[in-house]
Each structure stands twice: as C-alpha cells, then as structure tokens.
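Example record for the data management plan.
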Amino acid sequence: MRTIVRQTVLPDAPNELGRVLPLFDYCTLVFCIFSLSYAWYYPSLDTLERAPGIEYLKAVFNFCCLFSAIRILLIGNLRVILEEKIFLSIILFGTMGLFYSVSTPNTIGMIRFELLTLFSYIFYRYRFTRDFVVNTFVDIIGVIMILSLLAAFTNLGVMSGYDAGRWRGVFGHKNSLGEYSGLLMIVIFSLWKLGYKMKIRHALYAIATTLCLLKAGSATAIGVFALSISVFTATIFFARVHFVPSLRLASFLTLLVALVAAAILLIPIGAEMLGRDLTFTGRTEIWNWFLFFGNQRPWSGWGWATIGANDAMLNYIRETLKLPQIQTPHNGYISIIVEIGYPALVAYILWLLWAFVDASYKAIVERDYFHAMRAAIITGLMVHNFFESTAGATPSLWLLLIISTGKMKNSYAKKQMNDRNGLESPSLTHVRQ
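Corresponding structural encoding:
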C-alpha cells in the first residue's frame, strides 16, 4: 500500500482577475450544491407557497449558473457543451413543447434552468478535480444534515398531520430529507470503501445522516441506498476478479439484467400475496391518472414544469383520488411523459443506461474505482425516479454528481481552463491499493 497525496500549488496570480476568478468559481459550486438541495424552510407542505427569502436565493443561483456558463464558453472551444449530446436532446424535446405548453412562462423558465445548470455541470467537470467536487458536496450536505438533526429537536424539524413525528429537518418534507440523506450516505460509504482518508467531520456527517435517513421514515430513500450500495459492492467485486476485462464487464451486466428480470417477475407475486399494489405504497392509482393525461399528448407533453399550472389536470386528479395536497405523479419517468412526451422519456432512459454502462466500464475494465461510486449514484437515481418526481431530468444533485465527475473528453479545453485559472484544484487525500 502506498499513499498518494496531491497538494495544491498556488502560483502568483498575474493580476487581480487571476486572484478573484478561482474564488468565484468555488463560490458558484458551493451555492449550486446548496441551492439544488432545496434545504430551506417552507411555511407549509404546499411547496407553491414561497419560502422566506426564496426570491433572493433564486436570483443568486441564476447568477452563479450564468457565471459558470460564461466561463465554460470563454474556453474558446464550444464543442465541450456538446459532450452530453443525449441530455441536450432531452432539453430540445422540452423546447419543442413551447408550441404546446399550457404555461409558456413555466416552460421557458425550465428550459433556461436546464441549459444553465447543464453548462455549469460541464464547467465544474473541467474546472475542478472530481475528488474536489465530491468533497465539497459531502461538506455542504453534511453540514445540512447536522442542522437537520438539530432541527429535529424542535417543532420546525418534525412533520405534522399524516406523517406526524417523522423528521424533515431543514427541508420542506420528510421525503426530501430522506432523499438527500440517502444520496450522501451512498457517497460517504463509497469514499470510505475506496480508501479515501476520512476525517472526524466525515464521521459526524455519517452519524447525523444515518439518523436522518432512518428517522425520516422514507422507505424509498432506504431502498435506494441499499440497492446503490449493492451495485457499488458488485462493481468493485467484478473489477477485482481475475477474468479477462471484457468478460468481467459482461458478467456484471448479465447478472444485473437477470436480477432486474427476476424482480419484475417476483414483485407482482409478492404484492398480490400482501394485498398491495405494485409499488407497495398505493401509488399505482396516482400513476394511472397522470398517465391518462400524458397519453392525451404522447409526443409533445403538456409543457415543461406545467403539471402544477394545469388546473384541469391537477384539480381533477385531486378530486378523483381524494388527495387534496397531491402535486406530482410521484414518479420521475411519468413526469417526463406528462410534461415533454414519450420521445423525451426514451432519450432520458438511453442517457441513464449509457451513463451507467460507461461508469461500469471504467470501473471494471479500466479499474478506475471512482466510477463504481458513479455507477451507484446512477443506480440510485434510476430507482428513485420510480417513486418520486423530485429528480428525473430536472436539475438536481444527482445530475450534478453524475455529470460533473464524468470523464473530460476535450484535452484542449482542460488545458485552456488550467491556463486561465493558473492553478489546479485540491483533492481529497487518497490511499490506493
């Protein structure tokens, strides 16, 4: 075992701009992670009711995304913004929905949001090392989890009504606390198993996050964490066995396909034996009614970010299901169908599968074990989308981690970014076997 410690060297900046830009770059990453966590207090469970000061937070977030987008464009090589071609096609489908949207302002706002955040993710990929992005994510969300733990000892951090007693921390709902505590635990567990040296603060983050994950009472979050860690463990196992590299990857993917097929066959049987629906949560009826509206516009959808703005749809579903507070389909894939159509869903699934196979290839064949964590995160996003609409193809911390830690495909752009910044980003101290 040998320890590799990468240190940051800060050369003398040639001018004031050279000193300020790296600080701005870091601040945009920090604020982007914080904003996408949506970790601020809502006055009620109705997320349409504005949280205090939300307008200012959104304004700063939009500025940070615009700053990052301009920085990546100033590299001088516009090909970098085309590196995520499949994901760009999803945004294109959303843009076409402008001609059919029931709320044009909502759709325009979502298109702008999608483009700016995607450019920001690509900027972080070239600006920072992947270790640095992950370490920053762990620190910010870890602090939020500690604050959520403290908030749970007050009335503000605990749910009322139907979910009374469950923790929501500093988030608007228990499901949000469960979602991001699960994501953080996937990252912390992966870093620990990969041999990254953990500090005392990481232990505090892990303790607070574990408690939040359990006390939030989100079965989806716990299931996502368990499945993601299983995929991470399997990826590392197949990467280390003494097979031909291509055979290792083929065996891993074949095993996953077999397990998915077995689950598809066994889940209906188990649900019938227990007298439950296929989700075990009573959500299939919700899905059916949203699909009823989605199938009325299968090619175009009703427009991006318009489910809450479509009174004919949402009010009808609320009255029919006797669920006066329901606001989403509780399924990221169905949200895409309803808002931007089946072609966008196909593109999104292709992007997820491509990203997963690519991460698995790098982890198993090239033995770059960092990508085992990316494969686990992609798995978590896939499963999470079946039960919640908070991620899907919309900007989220899931997408930030998946895209910004991906492989840099343009060496010229990387060199230009380093030359303009005058420094390399620091990374976690890493122990490699």
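Summary line stored alongside the record: The two ends are 5 Å apart (CA to CA).
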